[in-house]
Write a structure and sequence with these properties.
This protein is α/β, with parallel strands linked by helices. It has 19 helices and 21 strands.
Length: about 500
């Protein structure tokens, strides 16, 4: 007998509802509903349009019902952002986007309250100004009256779960993105929370990945005319759902989850928190089975996505395939950027910013669309190599294969550049890693498959993986030296 389960996967630019049909041997995917995720700026504040997103969830549920029904729902999203509920369980305002400028200066400000080394020692998180800790510190500094009205903080996937069921909680993997979790104890660090002057009562109980949160509420069941199916709190940080879909057979493996952000790392039994990991600003996040995921966050396909949006604004309707084709036709290894430079984080004219960066760093300035796209891809690949070497140095392990998952695997150019820059074989796929991990953990929670090991085996049987061998060209080694010098000089 076939079993159907429903996954909602929210990314920074769009979301979708996907059905997974499990027949005992494979998971077959069926796209039900796809929608854009467009932030809305009002009075200078950038918000997520959470009510519209919840409306789209309902449309996905309706389409799932029409296509044969489903037995459970799982939700994954990006990290760090949240909504605040009041004492009556009412959402106080739309969640603010992590790209909003309210966190500017808050990272450095936090060190007035807690020593930087102590901060990292407890949380093990990469310092990024977008993190929840600094968003809350901004509220505490600039809108204390608003924060005082908050009774419960819910991170984005937990907020959607609450909207569906009324159940509150903080799933472990998404909570680990906040920089407020004790990485070793796997619980909220009230020491850090109190040091930052934040209210302790707003943080709900930590729940483990794969927890059944309860059925869809009676009101929504009546509205949509569905049965009260179970909502399961999967590994609700999209990176951790994607990691579950890595098809590695070896215990020690390296992965890149490549979407709007790129995350490169490995799965460990315990976090690595020491002077070296802090120096390299590597994060420890929570994964399935209480694993520690040791990884580096980097800008990813955002640079391509935002560049394409700029060209569309200029009247040039390029598809991603068109951009790749133009990039392949240009000369390689001419100029590079630091993908994580501050000017590339906000929305705006990324192609112009890339040209300005290259001009300031005395490099050839990419002029054509193809040259800009190649510059982005090669720079990402070289940044991956830096992160790879830092991870290997911290773990003391050598990784011969990079398992690359997510939307970035659709780019042959990026996959080959990654193999060449890192001088490693790249096993690319599945593209729909996040959705597959979401679906598989629902099947683990329901008892249809035994554990996460069997989940990975199931996904490997269900998907084709494409292998890219490194060309081992001397030019890439020379380019890597130039790239490292560029970062040091910049």
């Amino acid at each position: 007998m076939e079993k159907r389960v429903l996954a909602f996967d929210f990314g920074a630019s769009g979301g979708r509802a996907m059905a997974g049909i499990y027949n005992g041997e494979k998971i077959v995917l069926e796209e039900l509903h796809r929608f854009s995720n467009d932030p809305v700026t009002v009075c200078g504040v950038m918000y997520w349009d959470v009510l519209r997103l919840f409306y789209e969830m309902k449309q996905g549920i309706l389409k799932g019902k029409q296509k044969g029904g489903f037995e459970s729902i799982g939700i994954d999203t990006w990290g760090v952002d949240f909504g605040l509920l009041d004492k009556n369980g009412i959402l106080l305002e739309n969640p603010v986007h992590y790209r909003d400028n309210r966190t500017k200066g808050m990272l450095e400000k936090s060190f007035d309250y807690i020593d930087k080394e102590r901060f990292y020692e407890i949380t093990g998180n990469q310092f990024m100004e977008i993190n929840t800790a600094f968003q809350l510190l901004s509220l505490s500094q600039n809108r204390p009256e608003f924060l005082e009205r908050g009774e419960t903080l819910l991170l984005m996937p937990d907020l959607f779960t609450y909207m569906l069921t009324g159940a509150k909680g903080a799933e472990y993997s998404i909570a680990s993105t906040t920089q407020l979790l004790d990485a070793r104890k796997r619980s909220w660090s009230y020491h850090v929370i109190e040091k930052l002057g934040l209210p302790t009562h707003i943080f709900p109980n930590i729940i483990q990945s794969g927890t059944k949160m309860g059925p869809v509420s009676k009101e929504i069941c009546q509205e949509l005319m569905i049965h009260p199916v179970e909502v399961i709190s999967v590994a609700s940080h999209d990176t951790q759902s994607a990691l579950l879909a890595v098809t590695a057979k070896e215990k020690d493996f390296l992965f890149i989850s490549c979407g709007t952000w790129s995350l490169l790392g490995t799965e460990l039994e315990e976090p690595i928190i020491n002077e070296k990991s802090q120096k390299y600003n590597i994060t420890n996040e929570g994964g399935c089975d209480k694993k520690a995921v040791f990884l580096k966050n980097m800008i990813g396909l955002w640079l391509i996505q935002e560049s394409r949006r700029q060209w569309i604004r200029e009247g040039k309707e390029y598809g991603f395939g068109d951009l790749e084709k133009m990039a392949k036709e240009t000369k390689k290894l001419c100029s590079f950027i630091d993908p994580d430079a501050p000017e590339f984080i906000p929305q705006g004219n990324i192609p112009k910013k890339i040209q300005e960066f290259c001009k300031k760093t005395n490099q050839p300035v990419p002029e054509t669309v193809g040259e800009i796209v190649r510059c982005i891809n090669e720079s990402l690949a070289l940044k991956y190599r830096i992160a790879l070497e830092e991870i290997e140095e911290c773990t003391g392990k050598k990784y011969n294969t990079i398992y690359m998952v997510g939307g970035g695997t659709q780019s042959e150019l990026l996959c080959q550049c990654t193999a060449d820059a890192c001088n490693r074989m790249v096993a690319a796929g599945p593209i729909e890693a996040t959705v597959l991990g979401n679906l598989a953990l629902q099947l683990v929670a329901s008892g249809d498959i035994e554990d996460t090991k069997e989940a990975r085996e199931l996904i490997a049987r269900s998907q084709e993986i494409k292998v890219y061998e490194p060309h081992r060209e001397k030019e890439w080694e020379e380019a890597y030296g130039k790239f490292k010098n560029l970062l040091i000089g910049w």
